[in-house]
Design goal:
Largest sheet of chain A: 6 strands, mixed
Helix content of chain A: 25-40%
Largest interface: A-B, 101 and 101 residues
Shape of chain A: globular
Structural class of chain A: alpha+beta
Distance between the termini of chain A: 21 Å
Number of helices of chain A: 13
Oligomer: homodimer
Strand content of chain A: 15-25%
Radius of gyration of chain A: 23 Å
């Protein structure tokens, strides 16, 4: 333990500088105008894997953005850890809300502010640096494989094919991912479940052109009004989702499970203060921890239609749109939910408009075991770094590929996340604590060590 | 009559070329980036008034865009006609829906396509050319004054002050405005009523920043969802507006009045076909003519919030906005309705969000008499040009200054409009028929002639 601590201490400035370099690449996968930025990021990652000592490093082309692969096989008889991460990031807008430029990492009160700082550049890069340590100091306890993709924020569209076509190369005993958060630096935790996702875009068309709201107002259905009515009807007065069949496959937790879940520290006042809201809002009969962890949700991610520029324009719009995503829990199925949404949304549209529902992307919910060797190894590693036994939690986010890996490769995943919920993921001023970053680098070699030991 | 027809025939190419020049100025008053375009338009209009023979032409500064004034006083004992129009136009977006550039007038099947072609450049310029004819051919029957403003599309914010400060200069017997439409070239009509307007912008704020919809989804109110619910609640199942007190001051028409109103030709199938809708939509118990003419309405002119860019972003937005306008009928009052809306909208907001209602601009509804000399003069003039007696209609649009003029100057207005409802006012591909333009120029001198005769 001393050894890795010393190595981190001795190299931390370089570790930070390298991460800053990585964060300066605007690798926004959702927006075509950043294509170059995304591609150069892949090259940077490949180079850094080589520098750290990885063999057979390859920038693997896909129908979309490439997947960076690298490995270090020291002894076939040892267990193999497959590290997954993603080098793409969420769009940075609304830009005007950033205190410092999203692609110019800036440190304030010990936090690194930049798009991707925590999700996921800062987190996957910990593995590259921990790997560097294990190689240089001869501390490798397992074989290591890296698979860093560039399309996680847009649904990992091409990862499935890659995985199917590279089963041999990706053979491993466990998948290790740092792309989640823990409760706090004082209360380490391990996420043991992730919500699935169904993401759709809806288009409501009224008249075939924008109309003068005075000449036609009151005589023809306004698609913005109709869309509002349709969205409003998706939650009932108890904030239950009204889509028929939506809850059919939801696995209800036992009273014990719910009790355990709610033992995680949670301060509603702090939570409200942090978000600046007077009142929390959610599904009747469930706590906030449950609403964000074990219950499915439906959120409007974006809505637009008509004149949204400066000043006033008296137009009755032809079209209105919304991006809507649903978070799913075991055992809901992404495609089935998308289908249910589509059917329902089309069914509630009045004859006076046309509705189109376009599925964006999805992913399956997953629960990771807490009785596995890998979980125990993660538990021991975190306990050693934080001097406190981590508690299992349910994450509200989605990493669809966890389910994919289990299905295609038959490999389980450990979610060794070092972020915090307050890191502003997907928001302006995304940040990642320098301490989280360094502690992560410290913890990872311990996981490899204990995983190897427990696997014997 | 022959004479003006000949004059138009002899000069029509120049009349069109001059209008095209005027249409090439991007005089979008709502968008600050077009400031230069708006100001140059005022200069162009002033020059054209001089060229046509107007005296004392002046570009009168206001707190906003200037008002162009010009006059020709031939004999104080003759009646004076004050011509009002506006040289500013609506924003052109969505640009991608224009078949030809909005500020490059293009003729297709006898129609001039350009932003402002009908609203109101093409229509007020008819008066400039008719005036040119009357001056050059010594046909002036009345004194003429022009007041062409540049802020009609943003609520004529500074016209009120100008009118108050120039009562002497603006003294007239009648105000003549061409900024409305008639039923068709086969069925000339005169609008005898206009709806008022109350235009507001609402802002709904949930959390103090955009959030990750997975980490926070289901636990905090989504302002886009709440805004949708609030907007949805503004109309009941019969499409009556639910704002308490909204209908209190509405003057209900008598059965006779409604009967007369509904005698105007209206083909619902044609109407639906033109708009590309399967079904019309509106307030229960009223015909389409009534819904757009004598009933108040509430329309969403724009709505936006969250991520509206390419692809998918799983964000729970911090804010959602809407632009909402209400068309008012006699005797509703714009300020009172704005107040009622604000009070109601704030009252229906759940505690989990903050709501701000920002009034944009408004205007009062108006009804113009059909038994006046001016109306009869307009009737005779149109009948002579179109060989058919025009029928009185109620317009759905708003020209707030009509009420303003009556209040401040005590002068009534005649709405001598030559546009068509199908001219795509405020929409992409706005157009104005060349025939409408030329017939308008033909008709206007007749109005002056008959107005002078009937005034004797």
């Amino acid at each position: 333990m001393q050894k890795i601590k010393q190595y981190v201490e001795a190299n931390k400035d370089r570790f930070l500088e390298e991460l800053f370099e990585l964060l300066r690449f605007p690798s926004v996968s959702a927006d075509p105008q950043y294509k170059e930025g995304v591609l150069s990021t892949a090259e940077f990652v490949a180079q850094k894997l080589k520098d750290a000592g990885a063999d057979n490093v390859e920038i693997c082309p896909t129908a979309g953005y490439p997947i960076v692969y690298g490995e270090k096989i020291i002894d076939p008889s040892l267990p193999t850890v497959l590290v997954y991460g993603h080098y793409d990031v969420q769009p940075a807008d609304p830009l005007e809300l950033w205190e410092t430029p999203p692609f110019e990492p800036t440190v304030r009160d010990g936090k690194i502010y930049a798009r991707g700082a925590a999700d996921d550049k800062g987190q996957f890069y910990m593995h590259v640096k921990a790997f560097e340590y294990m190689v240089r100091e001869n501390e490798l306890a397992c074989n290591v494989k890296f698979m860093i993709e560039g399309e996680e924020e847009v649904g990992s569209a091409n990862l499935g094919t890659f995985v199917k076509e590279n089963k041999e190369r990706l053979k491993a005993d466990i998948i290790l991912i740092s792309d989640t958060s823990m409760i706090s630096m004082e209360t380490p935790s391990i996420e043991t479940g992730l919500r699935g996702l169904s993401y759709v875009e809806v288009e409501v068309t009224g008249p075939n052109r924008d109309l003068h709201s005075g000449v036609y107002g009151g005589a023809v259905a306004n698609p913005a009004t109709i869309l509002a009515k349709m969205i409003a009807s998706l939650h009932d007065e108890n904030n239950h989702i009204t889509i028929p069949g939506f809850y059919d496959d939801v696995v209800e937790l036992s009273a014990e499970e719910r009790k355990a879940l709610n033992e995680a520290p949670f301060d509603a006042e702090e939570y409200k203060k942090d978000l600046g809201v007077e009142e929390l809002w959610g599904e009747e009969g469930f706590t906030t921890i449950e609403r964000t962890g074990i219950r499915p949700t439906l959120e409007v991610n974006g809505i637009w239609g008509g004149y949204i520029g400066e000043g006033a324009k008296t137009v009755l719009p032809s079209k209105a749109y919304a991006k809507i995503s649903m978070r799913l829990v075991p055992n809901q199925n992404s495609d089935r939910i998308t289908e249910l949404f589509k059917k329902h949304f089309e069914s509630i549209a009045p004859k006076s408009v046309k509705v189109e529902v376009k599925p964006h992307h999805g992913g399956e919910p997953v629960v990771t075991p807490t009785d596995s060797i890998a979980y125990k190894a993660a538990e021991k590693a975190l306990e050693e770094t934080f001097n406190k036994k981590p508690i299992p939690t349910r994450g509200g986010g989605s990493i669809p590929i966890v389910a994919l890996f289990e299905k295609e490769l038959g490999i389980k995943t450990v979610l060794l996340g070092f972020g915090l919920d307050s890191d502003n993921l997907h928001s302006p001023n995304e940040k990642y604590g320098i301490e989280n970053y360094l502690k992560g680098i410290e913890t990872i070699p311990l996981f490899h060590k204990y995983y190897a030991e427990l696997s014997k």
